[in-house]
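Bench log. Compound arrived from synthesis this morning; before running ITC I wanted a structural hypothesis for how beta-D-fucopyranose sits in the protein. Inputs:
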Amino acid sequence: MSALQRADFPEGFSFGVATAAYQIEGAVTADARVPSIWDTFTASPGTIENGDTGEQACDHYHRYAEDVADMRDLGIDAYRFSIAWPRILPPGGRPNSAGIAFYDRLLDELLAAGIAPWATLYHWDLPQSLEDEGGWAARDTAYRFAEYAGVAAQAFGDRISHWITLNEPWVSSFLGYASGLHAPGRTDHAAALAAAHHLMLGHGLALQSLRAARPAAHVGITLNLTHVEGPDDRPLHAEAIRRADAITNRIFLDPLLRGRYPADMLSDTAHVTDHSYVLEGDLEIISGTIDFLGVNYYSPLVVTSGAYPGSAAIGIADRRRPRSGMGWEIDPGGLTKTLTRVTRDYGPLPLVVTENGSAWPDVVSDDGAVHDPDRTAYLVAHLRACLDAITEGVDLRGYFAWSLMDNFEWSHGYAQRFGLVHVDFATQRRTRKDSGDWYAGFLTTGRAATMREASR
Ligand code: FCB
């Protein structure tokens, strides 16, 4: 197989890296930032591996210039980061100019380095005071989010080319409010379904705020979509596949792109809620036209039918295929299928892979380098999967590797490393990994990539 080249991708395709505020910034009390649900959650014993918190993280708040220099050296076109709501707009208060000034500095540094800023407004750091009033399970949070979006658009809209309202509302609602694995750590299924709806309402209202303030802005939303399949082709898995697809993918895709909830998802969840949180007019707001859809893809979802015939339970299957450090099955073909499925079922729309990557137990070797061939192989295979989707007619506009650097990986703390750049959290020393060298070579030389990747 010939080596992958940047020139294989369409003209104007954006290559980048992605991060999120709470995972990298640290400085949680600097410049009048107010607490978020992640500050509260990580302070509660037993929630995070090793008791880790985002208090220091990568200290990006102070080291942003060094990090932008690393991005420039990688040769990326665009940087996807998130703005911390708790830094910008304390609920019930006035916009915080000291917090805004941090993103001003970051944006100026990025633009000077020739990197296009893509900003996510909500990557899970809800101000704690809003959670105290019901969080995303409460309708009012959607309106508060739209206010914050308006403040961000006013402050930064002259420099931000692309906006992403929400990152992965499935994770915010179901891991935050149903399983309790993420902040705010609630375990209430009805609250999770209400949260999913209010997040999407917040998306639609924020879209309106952004468009009002910045008519030329490119606005999208990022969903964690996945390809759902059975461990084998037996028809007995079909019901589990349908249910899992409804509650992970279609619960967001349908309201966003069709202006209605999937009927099967509503009936599957009827024993939990009467869905009375959906008010007249909400779906028109949620289905306001977006400029692109962000897709985060890491792994397929392999499900089996329930424990006994007719059971609604969805089992998670292990097909004994290679897995990354997170224990997630590696399946680049699932990315191609996810992208082609959206295009086939919802019509052609611009798509962007806003996150994709893999964690491995990286160490700095005696030679001073970080040898991470598994991450490079994952990256190459998934870039090829993107090319396959483009060949199949998907209007794919960009690819963002997760992540620029090792960071606070939510409930796993610092135990899982996703970066193209290694971070020694004791010293904050950054070391570009071999995978980062590969990406830089791919992006900057335009010539055949240095590594002859293993065939798929
Ligand atoms: C995604 C999150 C991102 C990161 C990756 C590994 O679900 O959006 O912040 O943690 O997983």
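What the model suggests: The first strand starts at residue 14 and ends at 18. Residues 20, 23, 167-168, 171, 224, 296, 355, 402, 409-410, 418 surround beta-D-fucopyranose (CB under 6 Å).
ITC booked for Thursday regardless.
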